[in-house]
Design brief:
Blueprint: H1 5-9, H2 12-31, H3 44-67, H4 71-96, H5 99-123, H6 127-144, H7 157-172, H8 174-180, H9 187-196, H10 199-212, H11 218-223
Length: 225
């Protein structure tokens, strides 16, 4: 009885991984003993907050769009993606360039992404949105080929890129996948599931941080409110 049910329900992994990541980050805030706060690697964890919050917003926006697709709802879908994408780009830059550059990159990507969403909705111009998506991933790919900086959390950028590429291929082959597997599930539905799995390398890196006793910088987070 739900319109486009599989495309709607396949957004649940975005929400699940998003909340798991936010819960893990919250643990860093509450588990550090008073007076023994060890600074995390600059803005890395702040970018992680942005990334996981973006996954939750993506789940809501994408489900909202697929229930009744139209231009306004598509903008909501893309806006959530822009938030998550900004966090990911920021994490990549923190890992391979510097912490300060990563935070700046996250905010620039977020501003550019939301502006691109507006261009697509108001002027039907998809060029800026394409530049944000593919240009941003090109940056992440280039950074994956460079060494990590001191203090990096060990995020495996190659795994994130591979999952993103697989998701885009499934999206491009939406109808073909649907026909190939006997109308069981569409490529777009599978795209949601695979794209959500891109959160796994970030979650794995966070577990490594937790073992080192690092915690999030609440002051930097408060500055973003």
């Amino acid at each position: 009885g739900m319109a486009n049910a599989m495309d709607v329900l396949s957004n649940l992994p975005f929400a699940l991984f998003g909340f798991v990541g936010l819960w893990q980050l919250r643990r860093f805030d509450t588990s550090a003993a008073p007076g023994t706060a060890t600074e995390p690697p600059g803005s890395t964890l702040d970018c992680a907050w942005l990334f996981f919050a973006g996954l939750v917003v993506t789940a809501a926006g994408s489900a909202f769009y697929h229930l009744q697709p139209d231009t306004l709802r598509l903008a909501a879908d893309r806006a959530g993606m822009a938030v998550a994408f900004a966090g990911l780009v920021g994490l990549a830059v923190c890992e391979r360039v510097s912490q300060r550059a990563g935070w700046v990159a996250a905010w620039c990507t977020l501003a550019g992404g939301l502006l691109a969403v507006a261009c697509a909705a108001e002027a039907n111009n998809l060029v800026p949105w394409g530049l944000v998506q593919f240009g941003g991933m090109a940056v992440v790919l280039a950074l994956a080929l460079t060494p990590r900086v001191p203090g990096a959390i060990g995020l495996r950028l190659g795994g994130v890129i591979a999952l993103y590429a697989a998701a885009k291929l499934l999206e491009a082959g939406d109808a073909w996948v649907y026909e190939a597997i006997g109308h069981l599930v569409s490529g777009h539905t599978l795209k949601h599931l695979v794209a959500a799995m891109a959160a796994l390398p970030v979650l794995a890196a966070l577990q490594g941080i937790g073992r080192k006793g690092l915690r999030h910088n609440p002051g930097a987070a408060a500055a973003t409110a």
